[in-house]
Specification:
heterodimer, A: about 750 residues, alpha+beta, 5 domains, five-stranded antiparallel sheet, four-stranded antiparallel sheet, 18 strands, about 15% strand, B: about 325 residues, 8 helices, 9 strands
Chain lengths: ~750, ~325
């Protein structure tokens, strides 16, 4: 049972690609071995900046022989058939066997594939793996044609068992595998030979290379914490940074330094971002004050002076960076204190948001109008929401955000506070971008919620207006994320709004921008309609009004805008399905709820879907659904055949059986209790009432023949079936449910 | 890497040591290109010579101009005119990293005391239609060089691949010499009878060019020059391959000069703030089109191992 050791030694592999490359290496090689008939006991993959390593233990020494029999043509078949069979098997006629078959003698080919030595298979699999490795980006070097993430310098490939180790004859272009590797680039640069994975690991460590990234991470984290603790400080955890840093070193040496006194007044996020993005430093915090006071850098070597020179150099670079940051911070503060955020944001008029959607200043105007309208729906004061919206993008013009784009929003909060804003306005500057994904926090303060909704609805309605919708995997403007953001803002806050209203309003604002109308005038009119009309048809009306179209003439533009509003609602519904799928709610259950009135109230829609989902999964629910479908099918067929609607007049006096009579009674009871439950949106309650119909419906279908000979009785029974349909109708459109 | 290097004493000593080092490694030591460029990569010894099959090895200093980076000589690190040291070797030798580290040792960086790292940084030049993979090289957390394996230049795949090293000389020298403000850095030997600092040499020019770049350069003239350079580039490339005496001569280099000019004029217009965000992309695209056309022309020349007589598509004149 030999073990395999493979090392692909290269120039520095980008840190962010190493973990994935480990997994790919393991999968490609082990899959290839197994496919070639070489099974194994266990496998592990490792990476450092300069190497990808695979160890496979308990490999078969050779693949199992394979014997294959194939039936050919009959002995008396035309020669062409025989020749074809010989070609396909690669045998000659005298190697075939003639066997007796039911219909006479038939040629048989017996193909023996002998087992192959592990080394032969490994060599093939490794070569194929190297040539087809799925690097996110790969390159050529020198005069060769081979591709790798950076120049591949050597291959170590060994099979070893009790008898010893042998080099596997792998050759890839100019590279031939051997049994040697190098240690740390600076601390132990010479080549050395190894005989097994254990030997390799031990010798590497002696040569100042820690092979396992997890071990490097743990060592860095432990040492950093110890050093901080000794000073009464703590490290700000950052798993992503830790993984990255562990991918930049083979021999981690943790060094801790202090941030200069002059920079301690900078916001902690600025210190953290600057240190992390530019220098890959960890932030060191004083737990008593919460301030960031120091940094931890991880060097790749030990030195005689215990890192003093390295630390001094890093400190100098950090000081230069933080001097810039301080300069930006102070300049920005001076600006907002004299000119306010409005002054800071004045330049937004010259920044194009999108060449078909106007400038950032246009966008801010629309968001302001939208936020003002949305505010009452989410419990915010309209003036505050409008104030927050007016300044929420101003920090994009600050020097700090120019340098650190990832601080957008956060700097807005600091600068809004400095400019004297209050009452949730500074927080809205920061939070209105959120939520940025399915797991990001959802803002809860009403002012933030109003501006966050306005921001996203403006984006969506804008790109819908210019027909830049997401297609397939392409979503360059992150519109799916924006729609999910709206959904999460609404659901997360339990807000009851008809999203058609702000959507129509947003569409109106964009139309106003395009046509050069004053948004405020436009918005006011649109808003009045949006507030007064709860019907889905309101959109057309309000747009007609907004464009001062007469009642009789619906301009083509208004028609197109109306269509885009409903198209966007369908997009929200699509994203909602994806969102609810994670809760285990099937799309057809959601469709059954979307088919109901008021489907632009996403909170109502989701409450209904959750109740329906629970109901359908219960035994009563499943059976009731079957009963409903049976009733509905029979009824629909009869209605089609007879050309009439059976909708009224079921009378208990024509009931012939107990089953019919108890169904009448059960329907009477259900109808009287479902209506009040629905009136309070108690879907679970209404469905519980529906569940009580299950037994009577089942009993009815078991004993009653709907298509009775008597036309009167048949009609009465069909009308009774209609009552089942009608009882279910206010709950959800059960016809949409599959199965 | 065991020798203990002596510390250089001036900016020029660092340049001289790099020259000596790369000459000793077989590079042709070239002189700066005699035109305004934004980076050492624009020198035809890099851009054009990285194309085609013929081997090449060159090292040179290239004065580089980035008008938007002007700070009137006041910023400790930013200059509108600065120096890059550039090395280009084709095909990239297998020990290029070791050669590079040797150059750091040569200019006084003791590998035993410092932390040198190769950190992922892919290079792309939208104006040259070029990209490559490599690293920024860190010394104690400071970026001291760019290290790139060219994959494509002027829209052409690089076969063989060139290895390119770019040293930002001022920043590197400030680090080695322990200087905090670029203007305080000794330019020549600080004990020379007439000791000059970087500021003595460049403070005034930084002021003058900052004013001209930001406030004074006449934008109508610059725009006209841009159009002229563009037209002349394409006209030169569209000329018949054979001259009046029947000699087959493709004018790749003169055309490329015009491309360089257009690129610098675009940078000046950008510094003057007359190019909007949307226009920016269009201008970059126009310069890239010139760079590609020049690359197409160069690969047909003898210097690239091509055949000048091979037919070439007519370029669209603007």
């Amino acid at each position: 049972m030999p073990d395999l050791l493979l090392e692909l030694f290269s120039e520095e592999i980008p840190a962010r690609m190493q973990a994935r490359a480990c997994a790919d290496l393991k999968k490609l090689v082990t899959d290839g071995l197994v496919e070639a008939g070489l099974t194994y006991a266990s496998a592990g993959a490792f990476s450092t900046p300069r190497r990808l390593v695979l160890t496979v233990e308990g490999l078969l020494a050779e693949s199992k022989p394979v014997r294959e029999e194939r039936k050919g043509p009959k002995a008396d078949a035309p020669d062409a058939a025989l020749q074809g069979f010989l070609r396909s098997t690669g045998l000659t006629k005298d190697q075939l066997e003639l066997r007796d078959d039911k219909k006479g003698q038939v040629y048989f080919a017996v193909i023996e594939k002998p087992g192959r030595a592990a080394a032969e298979i490994v060599a093939e699999v490794v070569e194929a793996t190297i040539r087809n490795f799925p690097w996110p980006k790969s390159m050529r070097w020198g005069a060769g044609a081979l591709r790798w993430v950076r120049p591949l310098q050597s291959i170590l490939c060994l099979l070893n068992d009790e008898a010893g180790a042998e080099v596997v004859p792998v050759t890839v272009d100019h590279l031939t595998a051997g049994n040697t590797t190098e240690g740390h680039r600076f601390m132990a640069p010479s080549r050395f030979a190894v005989s097994s994975f254990e030997d390799y690991r031990v010798k590497l460590r002696r040569a100042h290379v820690v092979l396992d990234a997890a071990e490097r991470e743990a060592a860095i984290w432990q040492d950093a914490q110890n050093q901080a603790f000794a000073q009464g400080l703590e490290i700000v955890p950052d798993a992503g940074l830790l993984a990255e840093v562990a991918g930049l070193v083979e021999w981690p040496v943790v060094l801790m330094g202090k941030i200069g006194e002059a920079f301690l007044g900078l916001p902690p996020e600025v210190l953290q971002t600057s240190m992390k993005e530019h220098q890959k430093f960890f932030s060191v915090r004083n737990p008593k004050t919460g301030r960031i006071e120091g940094f931890v850098t991880v060097a790749n070597r030990e030195t005689k002076d215990h890192g003093a020179t390295i630390l001094a150099g890093n400190n100098k670079v950090l000081s230069a960076r933080l001097s810039d940051a301080k300069f930006f911070w102070e300049n920005d503060l001076r600006m907002v204190k004299t000119a306010g955020l409005e002054g800071m944001g004045a330049g937004l008029a010259n920044v194009t948001f999108h060449n078909k959607l106007g400038s950032q200043a246009d966008r801010v105007k629309r968001i302001e109008a939208l936020a003002r309208e949305i505010a009452p729906m989410v419990g915010a004061k309209p003036d505050l929401a409008a104030e927050a919206a007016r300044i929420c993008k101003a920090d994009l013009q600050s020097a700090m955000v120019g340098e650190f784009p990832e601080l957008q929003g956060l700097m807005g909060r600091y600068y809004a506070q400095a400019a004297g804003h209050d009452d949730g306005v500074p927080e809205a500057c920061e939070m209105h971008y959120k939520p940025l994904g399915p797991t990001d926090d959802v803002p809860t303060d009403p002012v933030s919620v109003a501006v966050a909704l306005a921001d996203k609805i403006d984006t969506l309605t804008g790109f819908w207006a210019i027909d830049e919708k997401p297609t397939g995997s392409k979503d360059p403007y992150a519109l799916r994320r924006a729609a999910l953001g709206v959904i999460r803002l609404v659901l997360g806050n339990g807000v009851r709004i008809h999203v058609l209203n702000p959507t129509a309003f947003g569409v109106g604002c964009h139309a106003a921008t395009r046509q050069g109308f004053d948004i405020r005038d436009q918005a006011r009119q649109v808003a009045q309609f949006a507030a007064s009309i709860g019907e889905p048809v309101f959109a057309q009306k309000l747009l007609k009004e907004a464009f001062k179209a007469s009642e009789n003439e619906l301009s083509p533009e208004v028609g197109a805008l109306t269509a885009s509003i409903y198209d966007l609602l369908a997009f929200f519904h699509d994203r909602l399905k994806v969102f609810l799928k994670d809760e285990g709610i099937r799309h057809d259950i959601i469709d059954a709820c979307i088919a109901m009135p008021g489907n632009d109230d996403l909170t109502l829609l989701v409450n209904r879907a959750r109740a329906l989902n629970a109901f359908i999964q219960s035994e009563d629910g499943t059976n009731l659904l079957q009963g409903f479908k049976r009733a509905n099918n029979i009824l629909t067929q009869a209605e089609t055949k007879d050309g009439v609607e059976y909708s009224y007049g079921a009378d208990i006096k024509f009931a012939e059986t107990d089953a019919e009579r108890s169904l009448f009674a059960a329907l009477d009871a259900a109808e009287s209790s479902i209506a009040p439950a629905m009136a309070t949106e108690d879907f679970a309650g209404a469905m519980a009432e529906l569940a009580k119909l299950r037994a009577p419906i089942d009993a009815f279908f078991e004993t009653v023949q709907v298509n009775a000979d008597s036309e009167v009785i048949r009609r009465n029974r069909l009308n009774l079936l209609h009552r089942i349909r009608a009882a279910c109708a206010p709950v959800a459109d059960l016809t949409k449910i599959e199965g | 890497m065991t020798q203990t290097p002596t510390a250089p004493r001036s900016f020029q000593e660092i340049i001289l040591r790099l020259m000596t080092y790369w000459a000793s490694k077989g590079c042709a030591v070239m002189q700066p290109y005699d035109m305004e460029v934004g980076a050492g990569t624009f020198h035809p010894a890099t851009t054009l010579r990285s194309l085609g099959a013929k081997p090449w090895a060159a090292a040179y200093v290239q004065p580089s101009r980035r008008p938007t980076d002007g700070r009137y000589g006041e910023n400790p690190n930013r200059l509108q005119h600065y120096y890059q040291y550039q090395v280009l070797i084709k095909p990239s030798p297998p020990d290029l990293q070791a050669l590079y580290l040797g150059s750091l040792a040569a200019i006084g960086i003791d590998m035993e005391m410092h932390d040198i790292r190769f950190v992922e940084d892919d290079w792309e030049s939208p104006t040259l239609g070029a990209w490559g993979l490599g690293w920024e090289v860190w010394c104690d957390g400071m970026e001291v060089s760019q290290f790139t394996y060219f994959q494509q230049v002027g829209g052409h795949d690089c076969h063989p691949v060139s290895g390119e090293l770019t040293y930002g000389l001022e920043r590197l020298a400030m680090y080695i010499l322990g200087v905090d403000h670029v203007m305080d850095m000794p330019f020549n030997d600080p004990d020379a009878p007439i000791a000059l600092t970087y500021g003595d040499v460049f403070r005034q020019t930084e002021q003058e060019y900052s004013r001209w770049n930001f406030d004074q350069a006449d934008t109508d003239t610059l725009l006209q020059h841009f159009k002229d350079a563009e037209a002349e580039c394409l006209r030169s490339l569209n000329a018949p391959v054979k001259d009046s005496a029947g000699r087959a001569i493709i004018m790749a280099h003169p055309a490329y000069d015009q491309c360089i000019k257009a690129s610098h004029l675009f940078n000046l217009l950008d510094a003057r703030g007359v190019i909007s965000v949307t226009e920016r992309q269009a201008y970059i695209g126009r310069v890239r089109a010139l760079a590609k056309a020049c690359a197409d022309a160069f690969v047909r020349t003898e210097a690239a191992g091509g055949t000048p007589e091979a037919p070439m598509a007519e370029l669209e004149t603007l």
